[in-house]
User: Fold DUF2333 domain-containing protein from Ectopseudomonas composti.
Amino acid sequence: MLDWKNRSTNSQGSTDKASGGSRSSGSLIARSLGGLIGVYLLIALVVGWYWSQEPSAFQVQQHAQSAAQQAQRQMVTGYTTVETLKQVASTLLDKPGGYLSNDLAPPGLWLDNMPSWEYGVLVQVRDFSRALRKDFARSQSQSTEDPDLAKAEPRFHFDNKSWALPASESEYRDGIKSLDRYLARLSDTGQKNAQFYARADNLNNWLGDAGTRLGSLSQRLSASVGQVRLSENLQVGNDAEESGVVGEGGVYETPWLQIDNVFYEARGQAWALAHLLRAVEVDFADVLAKKNATVSVRQIIRELEAAQATLWSPMILNGSGYGILANHSLVMANYISRANAGLIDLRQLLSQG
Assistant:
């Protein structure tokens, strides 16, 4: 009888020890898993911060000369402009973290500022590649378009968020390769099948597209505090009275979660446009000098570069117009509007005889 009691007591003690051991091992696994998740989140936070750093500006003319020497090519009119477009597009793919707009995994999935910056750069790349195809590389409207530029433009217009089949990066790299083939033929003086016409009318057409982009950005940035706009259906004259069309105003305001996206898209467009204008200043130097427009180009570049100043705030502030907090969107809108005004003046100078 006593032996049975002793055995039952021993078995109960062993059961308690086993359950205690299982609980301790379970808590150890939970702590280990929690620690791993914490380390992963910390690493992802640091990597995400590093990937969110905007690329610095590069020296346009020096880069073009270095690239020409490395490829053993001759510097001709248009070389600096096309090489700059190549480098701007390559920056999207080769910057820290690579191209992030189509990422499906952390930390790229969590980032939205850098994808907005990438989209802003991509907009300017698309516009300039189209200008190359339809204006700069053709002597007149009835001329045949360059075959490599005809391939490059649609590559850059590919969906910017495609992850695979094909990925956005592969399409953009194909576009860069097409630009390089055009550049190789352009720099070969023995071949006459690639041209670059540095004329005032060609430049004026592209500047018109750039001005339209900046004007739209200025409106979107200013809408961070809400704007009262007249209806675009407003008509003036007897027709409005007869049709009964009334121009009613409305308040337009950027959604709160989209304010930083618009801000960084503007920074991306300003970054790309500043580089392209510096290249234009090199290849169109004679045209700008004849039109007394060199200073105007430099003034526009200065405004765009001012929009790239270091942002010390950890977030995009959206204070009211005369409130206590700053409004970074309105500051950016100021630089963009002044650059757009400079583009308008520059186009007027170029259109004069």
